[in-house]
Design goal:
Elements (H helix, E strand, L loop, with lengths): L12 E5 L5 E6 L2 H7 L10 E5 L4 E6 L2 H20 L4 E4 L19 E5 L1 H12 L1 H10 L4 E4 L9 H8 L3 E7 L6 E9 L2 E5 L11 H12 L4 H42 L1
Parallel strand pairs: 7-8
Antiparallel strand pairs: 1-2, 2-4, 3-4, 5-6, 6-7, 8-9, 9-10
Helix pairs in contact: 2-6, 2-7, 3-4, 6-7
Length: 267
């Protein structure tokens, strides 16, 4: 099936193939119709359904094997990286993120979403109180990090909407079916502000896009959870050593100049 290009606001329906081979159907309807359709269990027929009453879009997606594989890999990467950095993490898959005043059943459905460190521990504490407390916490507390493993033509405006919800950081992966080449974009998000490109993650151990590409390949070729965790841990420790080395390199000249001045004053 050929890629039909960007979704047209005039077309009632568009079908196209994502860069990883996932089949996507985008239907256009008025906001009231979209809200009514939210009550239907669409996931019986499509494994991914996005209902957007704001733009009047219904997106039906059948993720490819590669899409699902990458989402699972990033679950492993974030969990292992958080553990290696002595932090905590809680992942969510196939869940919808929405603002408290958005209609139930609507919202954004990232491939992976994560609470990290304090928010992860707070969610676990809420879960210990009961499902109602956990649901309330999830509805009112946006994730620290979300990952989109496949960017499609129907994703216009998603970055800004993640920021409006309160997500702190977004990783978007640019890949292509038939190749292992992967290019991640890291974006810092904030309500009411444009996204800011990041050279390294601000929420997860200072990992860089290059680190994530390496971790993806190593995790993909690991046969056990222990192997996957060890592979990511090595990358996190190496990144930590490099950050420490840079910090020392910037500190040493300052100390040297101060020592020189002090020596001259003592002469």
């Amino acid at each position: 099936m050929a890629d039909l290009g960007p979704v047209s606001t005039a077309d009632p329906a568009t079908v196209y193939v994502g860069p990883l081979g996932s089949i996507v159907h985008v239907l256009r309807a008025d906001a009231g119709t979209v809200a009514a359709l939210a009550a239907i269990d669409w996931n019986r027929w499509f494994s991914r359904v996005r209902l957007d009453p704001v733009r009047g879009l219904i997106t039906l997606m059948s993720p490819s094997r590669l899409h699902d594989e990458l989402a699972e890999i990033f679950d492993d990467i974030v969990d292992a990286a958080a553990s290696a950095a002595a932090g905590a993490s809680k992942s969510f898959r196939t869940t919808r993120l929405r603002k408290p005043d958005d209609p139930p059943g609507t919202g954004l459905e990232p491939d992976c979403a994560f609470y990290l460190d304090e928010r992860a521990r707070a969610y676990i504490a809420a879960l210990a109180e009961g499902e109602a407390a956990a649901e309330a916490y999830f509805l009112n507390t946006p994730p620290d990090l979300v990952v989109e493993v496949e960017i499609t033509h129907g994703d216009d405006g998603r970055i800004e909407r993640y920021g409006a919800i309160g997500v702190r950081e977004l990783w978007r992966l640019h890949g292509r079916k038939g190749t292992r080449t992967l290019r991640p974009d890291f974006l810092a998000l904030r309500r009411g502000a444009p996204p800011r490109a990041l050279a390294a993650s601000e929420v997860l151990a200072g990992l860089t896009p290059a680190d994530v590409c390496e971790a993806t390949e190593r995790v993909r070729l690991s046969a056990t959870r222990d192997e996957r965790s060890a592979a990511v841990a090595r990358i996190v420790r190496r990144r930590s050593r490099r950050r420490d080395a840079v910090r020392r390199r910037y500190q040493q000249p300052v100390i040297g100049r101060y020592s020189d001045v002090l020596a001259r004053l003592q002469c």
